[in-house]
Every structure is written in C-alpha cells, then in structure tokens.
Prior knowledge:
Number of helices: 22
Mean pLDDT: 91
Number of strands: 18
Strand order of the largest sheet: 11-14-17-10-18
Amino acid sequence: MVNKVTTGAVIGLNAYKVTVETDVLNGLPGFAIVGLPDTAINEARDRVRSAIKNSGFTFPAKKVVINLAPADLKKEGSNFDLPIAMGLLTEEAVIEEDKLQDYAFIGELSLDGTLRAITGVLPLILGLKEAGIKNIFVPKVNAYEAALAGDVNIFGADCLCDVVNHFADSAIKPTIIDIDTYLNKSINQEYLYDFKDVKGQQKAKRALEIAAAGGHNMLMTGSPGSGKTLMAKCFASILPPLELQEALELTKIYSICGLLPPDEPLMTKRPFRAVHHTASANGIIGGGSNPKPGEITLAHRGVLFLDEMVEFPRHVLEVLRQPLEDSEISISRTKHSIKYPAKFMLLGAMNPCPCGYLGDKEKQCTCSEYQINRYQSKLSGPLLDRIDLHVEVPRLTSEELLNTQPAVESSADIKKRVINARKIQAERYKNDGILTNSELTAKLIKKYCQIDKACADILKLAAVKYQLSGRRYDRVLKLARTIADLETSKDIQQTHIMQALQYRILSQ
C-alpha cells in the first residue's frame, strides 16, 4: 500500500505543495528516491535510515521507493528528510496514515533523530498555507519564523520522537509569535555611525535626507577624504522602520539565502548592502543553475551602496539599469524563469577623476582631459539618468575640519522628519499599491504631482536649457514631491521645483 505525506518545495520566492509517496516492496533491501531530487535529497537515504534506527524504530528490511510528486519539478534541499521518515514509519504501522491527512512536515534529520534548522521556512509555510494546509511540523528552531505566516498551526519539534509522540499521547502546542514585539525593536535601534559626527557637508546631508524620505537613488562625487563613505554609513541610521509587509518580504528573501540571524525570526532592520567593486554581475543580480538572489534583492527595501562606483566594471554597472527601472529582476534558465523583487535605493560614491582632485580648491588635479573623460565615461548616460540626486561633496574647510563641536542635528532628529514624510506617502498611496514617491508611475505622477503655472514655467525653461529627457522630467517631479512632503506641504511649490533641479541637474 502506498502512503502519502505532504511537504513543500521552493522555486525562487514561491513554494508549492509536494506529496511524498512511500511504497515498501518485496525484494532485496534498497532505498530509491525518484521525482527529480538533488544530491541533498538523495543523501536523505542514509540520514533517514540512521535517524529512524537511533530513535528506537524499525527500518523496513525490504525495497523502499520514495516518489516526490509532481515528478516534473526539480526538488532541492534537506527539508524532505522528515516527511520521508514519516512515510516510512506509517508503512511500519508506527503511525496511522489517517492521522497525517491534515498535516505537512518540513525538516532535516540528524543521524540521531534530532531536527536541524533549514532555510526558506517562511516561503514554504506560505505556499502550504495557500494550498490549504493548516497544520505543519517544522524544526523547533524554525518555529517562530514559520509562525509569521499566521492562520496556520505551527508545531515545533526537537526530534523525530517528538513528532511521533504528538500523534500518540504527547501533543505539541502550536507556536505563537507576537510580530509587533519584533517590529518595535527596530524603532529605537542604535547605530555605530551618526550624522552628529559628520563635520560640515550640509548640502549632502540634506540630499541624503531627501533620498531616505522618498526612496530615491543618489550619487556623491567628491575628493578623497571629503566624507562620502562616512555619510553613506550614517545613511542607515535615518532610514524609517520597516512596515509589516516589507519585513515579511525581506524575511522570505533572507530565509531562502540562509541569512536570517539565529535569534531574529523576522527582519526588522532595512538592509544596507555595501558591495566591493570586484563583485561579478551574477553576484549583483543573482544567478546559478537554480537562481539565487543577488545583492540587489538582498538590498530590497533598503540600500545598495557602491563605494568607488567607477571602479566597478562597466558591464556590471549596466546590469543595474533594468532593475532600477522595473524594481525587479528576472533570471531566465532553460527550465524556468524566476523573478526576484529589487526595490532598493542605489547609493553611489566616486571621485571626480583618477587622481581625485578635479575641482578641488586646495589641491591641483594632475589628470589629463583624456584621463578624466575616460574615467567619467564608465558611468553611462542611461545609468546616470536613473539616479535622482547628484551631489558634489567638497573638501572640508580648515574651520570645519578643526571644529570639535558635534553637528547641530543628529541622525535621530533627521529620522523623525523622514518617518513623517513616509507616513504622508503611505496615506497618499494606500490604494495605489506603492509606498514611496520613487515608485510613482507616469500615470500616478499626473495624479499626485500636479503643479501650477509658475512651476511649469520653471520646468519648461529647465527642459530647454538642460535638454531634459522624459525620464529626467518625471524624476524631477518625484523629487519635488518628496521635498514637499518633508516640509509637510500639500502642493508642490516653486521652491521645491528649484531645489529638485539643483540636486538633479545643476550638480552634474
């Protein structure tokens, strides 16, 4: 008789239901797993056999055949150990098959029968939830993460015996998690870098505040030692806390990559991914035979920081163009195509020339015109077109450098204004499926970025003088909308347009 046990498998960020079919046949002892398993699943034969024996149960002394259905989809990972073991124990009459009908099982078994942590738990639970499964067993260390799915009974078990005993006389209580407790932790988090320690650079600080408030991309250009990298590190301290939906999206991504902190089942902090210029294109966008998320997806709802941006190979920078425009990345392979979210803020820093001192008031540039043009041409026009704020970061004056007094504003002060601006945007776009001004489409720009005649005249003049493209024109309006939100202004005023043009054009 064939027994069936329910589990799940992940492709990309989505999961689907998998049925583990178990059959024990007369014949020489053997163990075969079919249904497109990977190496980790094939190795489950030895793990499951030892786990069952070391847990005090009998392993069938016959030919065992395991089928993972549907058989046409590739399965990966070690989370199939527990459902395979449950199927075999059902064959041995340790558990009645009827009792398993409303349950799903996920987990990796150690040789002694204990359950180890696995990756991708939250996507698996959400997929099984959509398939109508209401009771799911997971390793105890993954129980809180699994409980984030809600409306599902999550049973955390330490070992195979605990799972078996649950269906006998020692029922395990479902795991309950208070999501608000974890979200509230991020509100008063302390950061190593604070804007109160940054001397001068008021214009750059203001630009970073605007970028954080509206989710805009930004590029800082300046001499070595002017504070670009320090301000980029401080940028994380003014980012608003994650909304619940954002936190769940991030948790799914980091769970699949195995990057969730062991004591934090929910991502509560916006990611800040600082990438070295030796990173490959696949490292940035993701890839592999079974495509995994890259840095742009790990920076989802957070920041991707590229220090010394022009040192990145040009082809690596060019792969950012499509994700910056579409806020997602599609990775195609022979058998399937996977889409990963990529709504990130690009924060770049670079020197103006190879020696770094072009335009410096104190030190003379030693580069030739050819060297400067070749250096700056590494950033293509289409890529620069997708960056909302361009800011020059000059060398500090001697007075600023020697000033020992802390800055007037700390990161906490700036963060309050950023959070207030984000709340205004969340209320405005609650029925439009977006969260920030940077996500505005052409249709929504017409609806929410209306301007009067005086503002239109300023934009018309700028469009002619600076030859604005359609994308640049829209980005100026989105930038002006964010500046207005920071000043709690319902309408976009002339000053907002002028400031947006200053950051968008005049600094280039």
